[in-house]
């Protein structure tokens, strides 16, 4: 039926397409607003997913996916090794400002073309015509790589934090790498179940967890401020650390940049869910900007609080829990039970963060497969009518998370590897997509109408975003020290390069014959 509607829509107006949806079996949740139908008609896409997200639910979805204050606690160990308290605080502030510019630029594009494809679709529409097909293909692969590894990263973060909580309560617990890997399997499986069997309840769940996210933030802050051994503020804001032995505080801080990038990465998740959002062109940019400001502020306050009550950096890094924040919780409260409750809250949010990222990664893969950009595209683009979710794409996300968690069996810095891989891939997709719209502005070309028009501020914001993103991209490949062992090496550059080589080989062998790029489906009038 959806295929028939697509064919009938080829020479129809948005209003006629809307009328046909009204006359068929699509529910009101699936239709969306007239603006949603018009956007899908212009982009040549058939509505296959339910539009059951509103502002509060998609805002909750984005807030939980970023989970800035919780993620900041989980990645703090990386920043303490390379940068120290001062390095993390000042670098966080710089990165937050940078992402405000980046997400503002992408919010405008998300309003112009609200599609699950996101960056690769924008590149296909905004790049110079001679480069549209190839560039959008490459960016599609980068988005797939970035979001699939992002799902693995958050599952790994949750799994290792569960191990830390076990170690806090059982002093003679022996940390085993395979324990962490199995916990990744469990977290990923839990979220696959949620993203399939309970998908219709996802907006309600996100709204409820948003409340926990905000309430938990104030609860943890109150406990740390009331019980923590607050140190001199001057020391907190001026003490750098170089345990990676870079012999330069600035370089050490930059090599640990992933610690503060991860908590602020992923506001574009809302874009990849846009085909499930009602009035997407209006709601998506609102959600992206609000999420960036709110989560960024919460993460910054929590980071300063964490650094202020940290105590000994050496003791925090040497904690048997292998989680600096659990050491801080216990050191502040003096109670295993109290620290366990606070730690469980952070872990719970990490699990639901993974739930949101799994949903996002599967939708992005679904969109790229729909445009025939990956092997077995028909399989991953398939949406069972009774489910209204891309089940095969969700299952692949689960498989990728499980496979990447195996890195933990042979690397002492598995989190750094997976986090860096996710960061560099997503950042690269940001760079190219923003560069394309910046080029259109420089050339004075007409842009698509947007409900979030940046006007004259657009080009300066685009340029600042590009410079900032290139800076982050380069340092995301750095290891934690200048002379790493094989087990301590940041292998993300190898995995990044390997994925790009595979995608190019596939393009030459088959992709160029079946992938035409989203712009070829776009209707020039709407």
From TrEMBL:
Residues in the signal sequence: none
This protein's UniProt keywords: Membrane, Transmembrane, Transmembrane helix, Transport
Membrane topology (UniProt): Multi-pass membrane protein
InterPro entries documented for this protein: AA/rel_permease1 (IPR002293)
Subcellular localization: Membrane
GO terms of molecular function: transmembrane transporter activity
Compositional bias (Basic and acidic residues): 17-30
Transmembrane segments: 49-69, 89-113, 134-157, 177-198, 210-231, 251-271, 292-313, 333-355, 376-407, 413-439, 459-478, 490-509
Gene Ontology CC entries for this record: membrane
Span list, region Disordered: 1-30
Protein name listed in UniProt: Amino acid transporter
Species of provenance: Neocucurbitaria cava
Lineage start: Eukaryota, Fungi, Dikarya, Ascomycota, Pezizomycotina
